[in-house]
Amino acid sequence: MFWDKVEIYRQQKNLTYRTIARAMGKAETTVSSMRQFGTEPRISDGIKIADALGVDIRDLAE
Q1: pLDDT value at residue 1
Q2: Phi, psi of 50 (to 5 degrees)
Q3: CB burial class (10 A; 0-12, 13-18, 19+) of residue 23?
Q4: Chain center to CA of 28
C-alpha cells in the first residue's frame, strides 16, 4: 500500500509529515487526512511526496 511505503521511507529519512506537506505545498492536515483515510494521492501529489522522501515514485507505487 502506498502510505505504508511512505511511512517506511519517512522513518528511514527521519522526516515528519509536516516536512513532507511543506515540500508538497500542502497543509499538514491535508496530507494527514489522505494518510488516515488511505486515500491514494493524485499522481502529481504522489510525485511530490516521492521527491520529498528522495525516492522514485515507482518505489512508492510497487
Answers
A1: 86
A2: -60, -45
A3: middle
A4: 11
